[in-house]
Write the structure tokens for this entry.
Amino acid sequence: MEDRMIHQPTVMVVDDNPVNLCLMEAMLVPEGYRAILCESGKACLETVCIDAPDVILLDAMMPNLDGFQVIRQLKSLEKSRMIPVVMVTSLSDLTDRVAAIEAGADDFLSKPVSKVELLARVRSLLKIKKYNDQLAESEQRYRELVHDANVIIFATNGSGQINFMNEYGLSFFGYDASELMGRTESQTILPEFESTGRNLKEIAEGLIGKIEGYQRYTHENITKARRRVWVDWTNRVVVDKKTGEQGLLCVGVDVTAARRAEQEKQRQYSRQKRRDILNEGINRRLSQAELIGELGQIGIRPEAPFVVHVMGIPDKYLVEGSPEREWFERQQQINLLIDFLQDSGIGVVWQTPSGVAVIQSLPNLRNGAVTVEKVKLASEKLIYIVSRYWIEVMICAGVAHSAGEVSDIADVYEQACAALKYGPALIPGKNVYHWHDLGFIQFMVKDPGSVQARHFVEEHLGPIVNKKPAKNAMEELGTLEAIISGDSLQVIADRLFIHKQTVVFRKKKLEDILGVDLDEPVTRMNLIAAMKLLSISS
């Protein structure tokens, strides 16, 4: 078994003279060589493709295909180009020998052939063949390691220009070699800024000089198609033996899936943490101070004035009794929406029993008036963003904002929820409902003595009730109550013991003071509710 595993050196002899073939065979076989005998150049070329030898002894002068023609063809074939060829010839002219070398001959033997010289040439060329085989095997291993390995390998020169990238790397980034060679990382596979905010271009510049800190480094890269990917890089400084120039050899492993799984885990934790803290706050199991403190610990600091938007979660096509898998998919969509909004920098986003809620700070309005109109506009912008995420799904939002004494997140959240709950019934056909849109209905769902109720009175009757002296305020409130009663001008005039024209004059004055139209039904209802609340609180 072991003998069969030992390779027997094979020598091919090519000569059109059978006597010479027999002579060569007689010299080689007793020394342990296997001999392949070919009587023509054509037979040599055909046999090489089937049974490649280790050395070829080739006669120079043969009919049809001479030795020079045969050797050129041997050197042009992938399978035989590395086989050493000895030209056996009676030619002694230097010109013929030069022609043989140019054709590809590795050595010469002169006729008549000496056995000692023949065996010496064969042994020498077998060593060369062995070295060539080892080199070819090393090259094959190199190709398999570098080009076929599932890792990115690229090299740069001292100027940072890419001068090599393996096949896997080219395929991974989507480039042809010609598109990368001579260009830098920053011009091709490296974004200027990572999504984490790191300045990658700044890090890449002069990396050879600071390699100690970046021998192992994970960062974002970018493909030709502008897709962001994460790669774990091992970087080494290499020196060109010829020029002495320093460059970089970089080996990278694609960790995009692992990184995104890690990011998703972090997102899930952050999403859950926000939801737990804020839901504790809006359920009043945390005080406002405790709520702000808990949020601060996870890096969230909402600033007043702020708006709370509560968007109803669309059921889409799901109905009671739908498969659990569909409900899970729907929840996944909600989670993705929450992450999308949180990442957009709009504000603090979390899921509540009433829907998806957003606390949006309006610091740019801190020194200006936060009006209902401005708050509604902010909510409409938010719904527009959501509608781009959830296409063809009607989004409805209830909204309220901190104002005056109403600065508690739980209070403002309750107002927004009430707006979302009752707004569509009171004023159908809109997608944004502000707490103030509910008018006196607010106090069907809130305590008349609450801060919100006092704020409602202040908003609708403030210009009158804050007047000095109080006597004037009482007279104007009496006139206002009579005018909004719905009675005729004559009845009102009789009740107030004044002329009808005076009623018209006083009505116009009150409209100017309050900035309203007293003939508008909603305005009348709000003023009636405000006066009742004022009476109760007094």
Summary: The mean pLDDT is 85.
